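Risk register update: the risk of archive-format incompatibility is retired. Evidence:
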Amino acid sequence: MKFLHTSDWHLGRQLHNQSLLEDQQYVLEQIVELAQQHRVDALLVAGDIFDRSVPPSQAVKVLDDILHRFINELAIPVIMIAGNHDGAQRLAFAARHMRDLHIIGPLTDSIEPITLSTKAGDTVQFYGLPYAEPATVREVFNCEATSHQEAMQVLLEQVTGHDSQGHNKVVIAHCFLDGGDESESERPLSIGGADKITPSLFSDFAYVALGHLHGPQYKGEQHVRYSGSPLKYSFSEQHHAKSITLVELIGEDCQIELLPLKPLRDVRIIEGMLVDVLKAGEIDPNKDDYLMVKLLDKSAILDAMGKLRSVYPNVLHLERTGLMAENSQLVQNREHVKKGEYAMFNDFFSQVSGEDLSDAQQSLLKDTIETLHRGDQ
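Archived output:
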């Protein structure tokens, strides 16, 4: 069986207030073309289909159009699960009435496989595990799971306990493997490392299609993989080579190939003196890319953004690196912001009160930050 593994479409996302819907449509069309070219038997989308739980109507239309291409025009089944950005109930609307479109939204106490067969008679069982907080797993399965690791163990027990009748098992999940390479565009699942999951939990399956981390990568064994997002969703991803993963299961053999995706506009960081940046922009064949510009000039510049956009129309963020280098306090503050909310508040509390947070205060702070991150759901 041959299938495409993709994830983290984040339809409706913005990059520094710039809508990316046109860019998302462009890259999704490439996924359709690759599915045709490689004659795949299924498409897997491992969570974060939308960027927020209540997506804009244009994003819903983009998803509807692309699913129409796969299901009705190409007759390729699609299996998708809810990620931590998705509204699971909304995403799963009418899922029970669909035949070749399989959407796993809210977690239920019955994790049943989706069994797909090829024309040659090869059969694979796909298990979709939607993103679920440990508290949700405790409620659904009446268990004592307190961490993401323990919660995933409970879910995988349902999978391993199911009779496969000799068929390969493929798990689709949305989680954070320990040791995974992060980027700035991913929303943390938990605070203080409680979201980490050991890769060895998945070693017994034929393939594990993961979502959440935006860089294509594998941890532990090669068949436990993140496909990564199809587009760059932050400037920290400027060096990512975006792709989707082509997987072919032949008996117990798992063959994997990364199929590159070409963006409509790349996401890049340019650094230099203003005069040099403007000069380079005049002959830059990719001047429409989304850019962060770091200017090394140490003197004041009148309307620097206006000058830059006269050459590079999609400059989204400007940093005066040269000026900041003159002020060590600014550099220190910038590094401080990168620490994240938990570490920042911890430092703030220590500076103001002269003592560290107690265990109870740390627990309350973590719960509060996690509640804020889940606020839109």
